[in-house]
Every structure is written in structure tokens, then in C-alpha cells.
Amino acid sequence: MSADISKLATMLEMQNAMNTKIHPQWFEQGFEWYRAIWVECAEMLDHYGWKWWKKQTPDTDQVILELVDIFHFGIAMRIDGQTSYHTLAEQLFADISQPVVADDFKQTLELLAGAAVMEKRFDAAAFAGCMQQIGMSLDDLYRGYVGKNTLNFFRQDHGYKDGSYIKVWNGQEDNEHLVEVVKSLDTSHPEFAKQVYQGLEARYPA
């Protein structure tokens, strides 16, 4: 298995684990993942800038974070409980390897949103086009995805559901701590996700 397909398979497995933690019977719930995708697309467009009547500079870091969030929803749509993660990863890799791009980032993003709204599907090729036009690699996606997924697990384990979770520690939001932890680690390590979790645990107020 190539390293890229292996990373995609890992993300698919982590997504299923997260969905199952939130709702053990998530397959039967019929969650509208496609709707989450187009809503995130609209939020991302605000970070990128689309208003012709005022000067706007794309917030690239925030756009990348939104793409990572969209990928969570997109791969949740691909998981069916029957097809192996490896097979799903191969299919995803084939789509991502042939990015579809429009004239600019905004229009490519609209292809992604349009597929979600009109066809209720995750257009991984248009997603890859957005990645390409914003300068985001598969490694960037993997690093961002594993970090955010692990943070979501950490939140669930520390009282997110009942409201006891503390989001700001030592003057920084948990997302900021996450960025610092991830930067200090080797993403190619087989226990990268576990190391991220341990890094968060070490910083979290007891």
C-alpha cells in the first residue's frame, strides 16, 4: 500500500471511530453529511473573500482548516460499513489524483458545494482542486485531519458532551495548543495520533 493510500485509510478508520463514539448506530441515523459540506463551503468562502465591493485578503490558514473539516464530512459519506478502508482509500486516492479545477478557487469551491447540494455527494476531485489552488498537500490534509480528529476525541473524553470541558488553557484555545503539539511531532510516525493525544493531555489542566 502506498504511503498516501495508507494515510487515507487511516483517516477513514479514524472517522468511523469518531462517528461511532458520538453515536454507536450512526449508520442508521441518516445524518445529512452533504448539508454540512455545503454549509462549510459557504463559511470557507467568507474566509477566502468574495465581496467585490471591499478589499479582502484570503485567510489561507483558516481556509485550510475549513477544508480539513469538510474532509471529515466527505469521508463519512464514503464509509458504508461494508467496503474495506483500503478499498475506500484507493477510490479516494484515484479521485484526488485527478483534481478538477475551475478558473479560480471560488469557482472550484462552488463545484464542491454544488455536488453536495444538487447530488448529495462528496466530490473528492473538486475537493482536490480546492487543495491544489490553495497550495495544500495531502500531507497537510493528513496532519490537519489527524490533529482535529484527535482533538475531537480528546474533547469527548474530557466532558465536551456534559459541558465540563475547558476550552481555554493557559490563555490559549485548545485549537492553538493543537497546532503547537502537531508542529512538534513527526507525522510519519505510526503512532502520530496517539502522540497528539498525549501532547494535549500533558497540557490540559488537571
- Low-pLDDT residue intervals, each spanning 5 or more residues: none
| Overall helicity | 55-70%
Structural class: mainly alpha
Per CATH, the class of the largest domain reads Mainly Alpha
Work out the helix count: 9
Strand coverage percent: under 5%
Named at the architecture level, the CATH assignment of the largest domain is Orthogonal Bundle
Biggest sheet: strand arrangement: 1-2
If you consult CATH, what is the topology of the largest domain?
Answer: all-alpha NTP pyrophosphatase fold
Total domains, how many? Answer: 2
Order of helices and strands: HHHHHHHEEHH
Estimate the global geometry from the Cα principal axes: globular
> What can be said about the biggest beta sheet?
2 strands, antiparallel
Name of the CATH superfamily of the largest domain: Type II deoxyuridine triphosphatase
Query: Gap between N and C termini, in Å?
Result: 41 Å
Query: What's the total number of strands?
Result: 2
Evaluate the radius of gyration.
17 Å
Return the average pLDDT rounded to an integer. Answer: 91
